[in-house]
Amino acid sequence: MEIVTENATSLAWIGDAIMTLKVREHILKKGYRKADILQKKSARICSAKGQACILSTLREEKFFNEVECEILQRGRNATIHSKAKNADGKTYLEATALEALIGYLYLYEHQDRLEQLLDKVIEYGDKLRSYMEKMFLP
């Protein structure tokens, strides 16, 4: 395992940018071109609630290896000074964990694994409404 020197918040910041770009690229390839629709569709996946749902599903599938689980935990334990607009603190930290892992995979050039993870994010993101109903509705 590499010695990860970046703090979890920096990894999450990088991961958020990478994930948002990949998700928007996917939405564009599906033929959506209007800015408001692009924003609405990407926000559903890239929101804290969306990311937490995706992370939960990936954990259930045991998608992550041991090193990735350590990075997720590190992201989950990040010190966050801002709060998500539409999510509680736990959900926000789960989203930060996923973003930190994406940032780690990108920064440490684990390109194949990054692509696998982003493909899963998009796959589950396309089905997100039903996942979110299971997790966040009574």
By secondary-structure content and strand pairing, the structural class works out as mainly alpha
**Sequence stretches where pLDDT stays below 50 over 5 or more residues:** none
Count of runs of 4 or more consecutive helical residues: 7
Give the overall shape, derived from the CA principal axes: globular
N-to-C terminal Cα separation, in Å? 41 Å
Helix-strand topology string: HHHHHHH
How many strands in all? 0
Features:
138 residues, mainly alpha, 74% helix, globular
Concise description?
It is built from 7 helices and no strands.
Architecture overview:
By secondary structure, the protein is mainly α. Helices cover 74% and strands 0% of the residues. It contains seven helices and no strands. The protein has helices at 8-29, 35-46, 48-60, 66-76, 89-107, 111-126, 128-136. The longest helix is centred in the N-terminal third of the chain and has 22 residues, at 8-29. The radius of gyration is 14 Å and the shape is globular.
